[in-house]
Amino acid sequence: MLSNLMIPAVLFFALGVIARVIKSDLKFPPELAKALSIYLLMSIGLHGGVELAKADLGSAVSAIVWALLLGFGMPVIGYGLLTATRRVGPLDAAAIAAHYGSVSAGTFLAAMAWLDTQGLAYETYPLIMLAVMESPAIVVGLLLAARARQKVRAAAGSNGTATTNGRGEDTTSLRSLLHGAFTNGSVVILVGCMAIGAISLPNAMDKLKPFIDDIFMGALCLFLFEMGMEAARRLQDFKRVGAILAVFGIVMPIVGGAVGALIGSLALDFSVGGATLVAVLAASASYIAVPPAMRLAVPEANPSLYLTLSLGITFPFNVVLGIPLYHAMVTFLAGV
């Protein structure tokens, strides 16, 4: 197990955590962190598009359908587990659950790096699933929040008012929510670059290889270094989350990983590498796309809860222990 962690990407993440813990004066420029995120999403999007152009249409459609089912289903599972704990209110539960139905591009990239070091090939379809799963969980989370809000208002004997932005527009309307979910920056970059990769001529894409291939791993290491620093900062809020919720931050990804392993191995019949990526998608929690959506449309929810869980607990767990665990699940199912 220890040898599985001795790869540059994971070690750079650990270095970021250590730098924060020892209170180093090292600071990571926010603009660079954003640029790295854009570059990494662009790179995997272009790669996914190139492979998509070669892919079987039927398999691609099947992957998209299962991605939608995961995106819509995982928040419901998370919401049920959270409400069963009786430690958080329904609005907080809805906001947290939305994070666990969406995906973490950082975790996915770390999983790709881990598989590469193990010499394991994987299909391109999980890249398509990554793009598809960004948004459905946001919609489900907000629908759960709307239902919870109605219960709260009914209990209080008040009809309440809609959440609006500065222009007086209802930010919880279905149209507004769908627009925000599907025009999120990470979704636009990922889907757009997949389209570019799919329709570009092969010889034209070859000219991009030095940019999207040769420096990819170095950029990923820098990205995970910054994420390690941010995760360590969030761990300082551990006491606010509480022991029960902290356990949820570990149990939920394991549940999701098991579901994803079953889907990737049995339903989609992917290779061990491809099924592992599906398990990682189902196990990850969003820390980029979902938080701003929840902050806008569910202002009653406590941001420290869902940010600490997704970034301070689940992300480190997945990067350090989760990825090898999900690979072991898939290997067991494959009978390898």
Question: Which terms summarize this structure?
Answer:
336 residues, mainly alpha, Na+/H+ antiporter like fold, 0% strand, globular, Sbt_1, Sodium-dependent bicarbonate transport family permease, transmembrane helix, membrane, transmembrane
Euclidean distance between termini CA atoms:
17 Å
Tally the beta strands: 0
CATH class: Mainly Alpha
Helix content: over 70%
- The oligomeric state of the chains shown is single chain
How is the main sheet built? none
In N-to-C order, the SSE pattern is HHHHHHHHHHHHHHHHHH
- SS class: mainly alpha
How many alpha or pi helices? 18
The CATH topology name reads Na+/H+ antiporter like fold
Q: Any idea what the shape is? A: globular
Rg to the nearest angstrom? 20 Å
Runs in which pLDDT lies below 50 for 5 or more consecutive residues are: none
Summarize model confidence as the mean pLDDT.
Answer: 84
Architecture per CATH nomenclature, i.e. the level-2 architecture? Up-down Bundle
Roughly what fraction of the amino acids lie in strands? under 5%
Number of domains: 1
